[in-house]
Amino acid sequence: MRPEPWRVKRVHKDTRDTFSLELEPENGDPFSFLPGQFNMLYLFGTGEVPISISGDPGQTDAILHTVRRVGVVTDAMGQLRKGHSLGLRGPYGEPWPLDQAENKDIVIVAGGIGLAPLRPALLSIVANRDKYQNIVLLYGARTPDDILYRKDLEKLSAQLDIQVFVTVDRGTANWRGSIGVVPNMIRRAPFDAQNAVAMICGPEIMIHYATKELHRRGLPDEKIFVSMERNMKCGIGLCGHCQFGPYFVCRDGPVFPYSRVEKLLQVREA
Amino acid sequence: MRPDQQGEAIFLLPDEKLAELLSAIKERGYQLIAPILRDAALCFSEIDGASELPQGLRDAQSPGSYRIKQTASPERFAHASGPTSLKRFLYPPRLKLWQTQRKANAMVFEEPADPPPRYAFIGPRPCDLQAVAIQDRVFLRSAHPDNDYRRRRENALFVAVNCLHPSESCFCSSMNSGPSAKSGFDILLTEQIESEELYYLVQTGTDEGLEILNTLKLKPAADSKKRKAATELKQATKKIERKLDPTGIGPALKERLDSPAWDELENRCLACGNCTLACPTCFCSTVEDHTDLAGEIATRDRVWDSCFQQSFSYVAGGPVRSTIKGRYRQWLTHKLSSWSDQFGTLGCVGCGRCITWCPVGIDLVAEANAICTERQSQNPTKTTIGVSP
């Protein structure tokens, strides 16, 4: 439960309310992590929050976290600048099943800040492109200004062997892209449901409708993976806060095969 | 003591020698923790010696009610479990995890280095021992074991007492945890009274227990005394009327997460969290951060938490379980169902604390059975006992 001292190497402002912190340890080298894992970040005297790792698993000199300001701790984290100190423990949790996706089509479905925990998976897929078949990214943001990792997305769009579809809930005067919810893009997404794996992260309501659409396309539950969000205090399955039926989301998740959580997701307040 | 243990070494400890036993334990460096009268209830607290153990106290427990009565009997353990359990000693309500100091813009984290306490528990019941065995699974059989719990646990000595006076709230016989202890003790006492003479039948469960007992030079107990105790323990089992099916309840609850029977709890449960604090196995915690006035030292404490708090499940946007019904269901299904998936055992020992200490007398056994028979619960003031699922 004791964090290690880390230091801010660089701060990126992503959107109006979202920023990314590049962190390096005060002592030694950063650890290696698997796409989908998270760390507990501690801010002096303010508190500790679970934040997904959003950097490139192949990059070893710093660990990237993308944070949206939604509460006391994340707000205060927004004040961090280069050289500032913070505590870190991790990495924790079960990763995205990239090994199970080999030689298959991959459908990545992300909503809002839900793209952050999927980014390491995406970067790893791009770096090992020949291991996979078709790659489709379906991403939804609230408005064009809320689109996360815009440069990444533009670079991926330019890549001819990866298909990127972006939609927003509300357009702006100069937005000429798609308007609507992410699950609606699944219907026409170019993947072979007989040989595909889907990875979803976003609001639970989006997960609900996205899985419905994936089912309609014929993708079975075992091929759908979702990343869950719950309150976490310890990150190691001891404090009880993140319980979801028989699971501790921090330890047994955050990434779950949909087949394991489908029934519970249908229960209100499970 | 069980009838099938007749062959094992059972010694006779006259009440006059109980003080010697406790002194021998104290001399080995243990702090004595025993149930004494505090705030009108029998609570585990530190004592100096046997003279502080109350005599003649009886308890009357029922849903939402706990009363102590003084009798003329010299018995010291003729009562069931009080509101406290060993949990508060092995897994304290507040524990400092670490502190950090800001030095030239860097942080240094330090864990407390105090030696762990050495507790000798005098008078925990078989259900209490079972609760410790369950917490062992929670805190120790983990990829990230709780180091503070481990150190306290390894240092502890258990002088348990078999339960001859189960309360109306008890259902240990259903949970296979009592009224006789089978394991988890260093020394096990069965309190006996025979023509106004108070004595204990004593067994040992560990080498340390035997070593302590050997210093007392006790005589073996006569067969007639062993038979008397065995008969009384059988009678104690018969006195327990509350029944729960420990194997059927878990799967049955899983199938009934949408049962309308949960709705009614929204109006009765106060979400006060008493049950989770009184429960000897409930382990949920949160953390609190404090900073000194100069803003140089920050400390982090772990404190008990309760799944009945709305903030417990809070994520950005709101709590996952905003209704009391949802929180009660989380608690009950965790205790009696999902605990098995997580730790290979139920999270309930049948001590009845959650029933006695619920301010509105909600009865876990009655509720679980009612939900599993898909029947609306009875009138809230009336408890249903012995409904099998």
For the sheet with most strands of chain A, the description reads: 7 strands, mixed
* Unreliable parts of chain A: none
Order of helices and strands of chain B: EHEEEEHEEEHHEEEHEHHHHEEEEHHH
What is the CATH topology assignment of the largest domain in chain A?
Answer: Rossmann fold
Our estimate of the beta-strand percent of chain A is: 25-35%
The average pLDDT score of chain B comes to 92
CA-based shape of chain B:
globular
User: What is the straight-line distance between the termini of chain A?
Assistant: 27 Å
Question: What would you say about this model in short?
Answer:
Chain A has seven helices and 15 strands. Chain A has 270 residues and is of the alpha/beta class.
Description:
The complex is a heterodimer of chains A (270) and B (389). Chain A has 270 residues and is α/β, with parallel strands linked by helices. Chain A has 2 domains: 4-92, Beta Barrel (Elongation Factor Tu (Ef-tu), domain 3); 105-218, Nucleotide-binding domain of ferredoxin-NADP reductase (FNR) module (Rossmann fold, 3-Layer(aba) Sandwich). Chain A is 20% helix and 31% strand. Chain A contains 7 helices and 15 strands. Chain A has helices spanning 72-77, 119-127, 150-158, 183-186, 204-217, 249-252, 258-265; strands at residues 4-15, 18-25, 38-43, 47-52, 63-68, 85-92, 105-111, 135-141, 163-168, 178-179, 196-201, 224-227, 243-244, 247-248, 255-257. Chain B has 2 domains: 3-239, no CATH class; 249-372, no CATH class. Helix content of chain B is 28%, strand content 24%. Chain B has 12 helices and 16 strands. In chain B, strand 13 (285-291) and strand 14 form a beta hairpin. The radius of gyration of chain B is 22 Å and the shape is globular. Classes of the chains: A alpha/beta (270), B alpha+beta (389).
